[in-house]
Amino acid sequence: MLAWTIFLFVVGRLGTIELAASNIAFRINGFAFFPVIGLSQAVAVLVGQSQGRQDTIESVRITYAGLFLSEIWMLASAFVFIVFPEEIYLLFKSDIHGNGNYEAIIKTGTILLQFIAFYSLFDALNIILSGALQAAGDTKWTMIFGLIANICFFTLLILADFYKMGLWIEWILGALFVIITGLLWLYRFQSGIWKSIKVIEHAP
Question: Cβ contacts of residue 2 below 8 Å, gap of 6+?
């Protein structure tokens, strides 16, 4: 969440239209990812129990089942975001109409929802697989990877802000951050390194 807080701070330096459109976009984005966070917590509990029994096959099955469900939800959300962007933004008309540039905000937000619709499919990888890996005991790697990924993202955002690259470049960086980290979580999970980690040490 820290990464996106800083992201909004940087975007806010571009102007009121960019900030308003981005703020609303993230509130809409919550509709997609908050249910997946809940599913991730359920997956993490079940994976932790399976790893406690040293049943890695069940851990894999549970994780992919959770990932499958989350991707279905993200696809449905992405469809809504792409097909009904203006209608969704008008749900926030009380916020938008307080700004004289509400037409520009809706126009900008329509494009931002396309970014969200695309990267949400990869965000499911981030949410589900990071939870599963932590539950499996792969906490050191997840911590180090998360730290490095965020530092890289912060650095690129600062450069984009310094060179005044604009809203679209900053959102492209945000989308790439989600996509690349999601694929790396998937690579780590499929590597199977976490399978050798013992969550519970059994007495001899």
Answer: 150
pTM of the model: 0.94
Structural domain contains residue 98: yes
- Residues 36-56: pLDDT tens digits? 999 999 999 999 999 999 999
Q: How far is CA 37 from CA 89, 105, 106, in A?
A: 23, 28, 28
Q: Which residues have C-beta within 8 Å of that of residue 107, sequence separation ≥ 6?
A: none
Q: Report the number of distinct structural domains present in the chain.
A: 1
| Residues 6+ positions from 21 with CB-CB distance below 8 Å | 105, 106, 108, 109, 112
51-54: long-range contacts (C-beta < 8 A, 24 or more apart)?
A: 51/135, 51/136, 51/137, 51/197, 51/199, 51/200, 52/199, 52/200, 54/198
Q: Which domain covers residue 115, as residue numbers? A: 2-192
